[in-house]
Amino acid sequence: MDTTNQSRTTMTGTQQHEPISHRIVVAVADRAEVKTNDLPRLYDSIDPDALNAMVEHGGQDLRISFSFAGYEVVVDDDTVHVEQKR
Questions:
Q1: In this predicted structure, which of 18-22, 34-38, 39-43 has the lowest mean pLDDT?
Q2: Distance CA 78, CA 14 (A)
Q3: Are 31 and 4 in contact (CB under 8 A)?
Q4: pTM of the model
């Protein structure tokens, strides 16, 4: 499920075949209304491989937050929340 309002985009685990790092890039691109190729490299903000491993093996109480491309990204379990930085 993908829901968007003026301040937040949320993507749930409906795309579980995709790594969380890919879903984050897609969610931020959707929120910024740009193509994924127009964003900076995710690796400049967080290690995508480590992020994928943490989400895959992290359990139910996982919460990760970081800044990426002018947005605050929060990962709760397999849900990605994207908010524009204030």
A1: 18-22
A2: 9
A3: yes
A4: 0.82
Bridge partner residues of 76 (DSSP): 63, 79
CB-based contact 5:82 (threshold 8 Å): no
For the chain, the domains span 2-84
Burial of 27 per CB tally in 10 Å (0-12, 13-18, 19+): buried
Cβ(69)–Cβ(39) below 8 Å: yes
Q: In this structure, what are the phi and psi dihedrals at residue 7, rounded to the nearest 5 degrees?
A: -115, -10
**Residue that is written with structure tokens 């795309």 in the block:** 15
The answer to whether 58 and 9 are in contact (CB under 8 A) is no
Question: pLDDT at position 1, please?
Answer: 45
Fill in the amino acid letter for 4. Answer: T
